Structures are given as C-alpha cells and as structure tokens.
Amino acid sequence: MTTSTVADIAALVGRLLLALLFLHEGWIKLTHAEISMVYMKNFGVPTWLFMPALAVEIGGGLLLVAGWGSRYAALALAIFCLSTAAIFHTVFTDGGQLLHFEKDLAIAGGLLVLFAAGPGRFSIGTRESLRLSTSPQI
How far apart are CA 129 and CA 71, in angstroms? Predict the structure, then answer.
C-alpha cells in the first residue's frame, strides 16, 4: 500500500468515527426531544434552536459519511462543538464538565483538520477535494 492510500484510508476512518458521534448524539436528541429541550432551556438556550442543532448534527454526520460537502460540514460541526463547549461545559471545577469541554475542543480540532485537508480519495466529494486547494477559501 502506498502512503497516499494509507492516508486516504485514515481520512475515511476518521470521517466515519467523527460522523458516528454526531449521528448517535443526534439520534438520542431526536428520540428524547423533550428532555433535550428542557436541558437547553436550563442553560438559557431558546428551544427553537433544537431543530437547527439537530439538523447540523444529523445532516453534518451524514455528509461526513458520504464525504460530500464534508469540508463545510466539518466547519459547521466544529463551530457547533465550540458553541456547545462554551454554553454547556463551563463549570471547570467539575471534572466531568471540564472533560466534556476538553473533548469538545479536541473534536472541533479534528473537524478543522478535516476542513483543511478535505475528505480524502474515498468519498463522494473526491472531485471537491481535488478542486479545492488545501487551504479552502471561504
């Protein structure tokens, strides 16, 4: 196997692992919508944001799986993770909260790398990946 093939396999596995997280969490929120909205409301987040947040998680996760539009899905999910960290995980004296904050930052970091590098060769978005430079312009 060439280095390029190994990198493309790593990009695919990385995309799938990231997508799994968002698809799972989106499904949990969807199947427990009332609990999720109460949780949001307790942190001062308007419940009308529930559906857009769900769309970002599930839609973004599906785009990561496909590798189509994955650069911008990764960017949207990174912003989602940073927002989640800043809103829901700011009690740093609580070890669990601090851990969730750090994980959200790490996930956002991985998503930003995906945004910068693209989905890899094993994706529906291969043409997108080749067409864009390694430093996409927004």
Answer: 8
Please check whether residue 71 is in contact with residue 115, taking contact to mean a CB–CB distance below 8 angstroms.
Answer: yes
Per-residue DSSP letter, 10: H
pLDDT higher than 90, residue 124: no
Q: Which residues contact 64 (CB under 8 A, 6 or more apart)?
A: 15, 16, 18, 19, 22, 70, 73, 74, 77, 114, 119
Exposed e or buried b per residue across 5-14, where buried means at least 16 C-beta atoms within 10 angstroms of its C-beta = eeebeebbeb
Planar angle of CA 110, 112, 116, nearest 5 degrees: 115
DSSP for 70-107 reads HHHHHHHHHHHHHHHHHHH---TTSHHHHHHHHHHHHH
What does the pLDDT look like over 57-67, one tens digit per residue?
Answer: 999 999 999 99
CB atoms within 10 A of CB 86: 12
